[in-house]
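Good morning C.,

I know you're traveling, so I'll keep this short. The sequence:
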Amino acid sequence: MLRPKLPTMPQPTGLTIPSAVIHPTTITPGTQATPVPPAPVALPAPPSRPVVQLTPGTALALVGGGTAVVLVVGAVLVSLLLAVAITGASVAICAVVLRSLLASEAKRR
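The C-alpha cells, ready to paste straight into the viewer:
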C-alpha cells in the first residue's frame, strides 16, 4: 500500500559515439631510428602581479577600519547579551508574580 515507486533508469538519448578502432602497427627489427633532439621548451613567463605598497596613509586607514569593525561587532554582541539578560529578568519577575498570585488564591479557600 505504501511502497515507494522507484524510478526506472532512462535509456540514453541523443547521439552515441562508437568506440575508436585501434589498428596495430608492425615493428620491423633491425632498423634503427636516429634520435631526434628535443625542441627547446619555452618557459612560461611568471605572472605579473601588482606589488602592494603600504604607505603610512593606507596603514592608518587599515587600522581605523579594523578598529571600526571591532567596535561594531562588540556593540552588537553586547546588545544581544543585554537583550538576553533583560528577557531572563522579566521572565523571572513574571514567575514570582504568578507564584504569589497562586499562593494567595490557595490561602483564600
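Safe travels,
E.
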